Amino acid sequence: MNVDLEQPRLLITQKTASDLNGECSACGRSFHAFVRTTEKDALWLLTRSFKLHCRRIHSLVVHPALPVDEMVESLPLPAYVCAKSTRKVVAANQRFRQVMGYTADEIGELRLDDFRAPEDVPCLLESLQRAGGAMVDQRYRTKEGRFLQVRLRYQDINLFQNETAVRDARFVVLTSIEAV
Question: Domain 68-179 belongs to what topology?
């Protein structure tokens, strides 16, 4: 078995008329599914078990059927996902784009620094060093230059999607927004 810790894969190891077996490429954990109706249903069950395993054991969120932008877009509050190391915005929902005044194309080119006043960047860098799961108040700057006081909840996640692993992603939801 070739172990690739960066990108765990579900490797199908055996396929019969009644069984489907696989294993995690990162740790060798075995998975099994019975073919009850169709092979497609068995593959769905096997994939579901693999995704739960990746979330629990490898701290990876695997969403092969739902891209991260669709996942974020489905949230009712303004939200975005960024890579902590580059501070690049990976995805943002329409509610966040409306609050901040950016288009979908523009938001994909931005970094977290673009939402902050220069004097707030040291505070941003400090917050990126802290572990996720906190509720904090921060000051954001819109495209027009207006400042907003936002209360946000963030969670550090490892995201694996579309052949790419983002091991230092931060998922952020704005729970309260007030003009300053």
Answer: Beta-Lactamase (3.30.450)
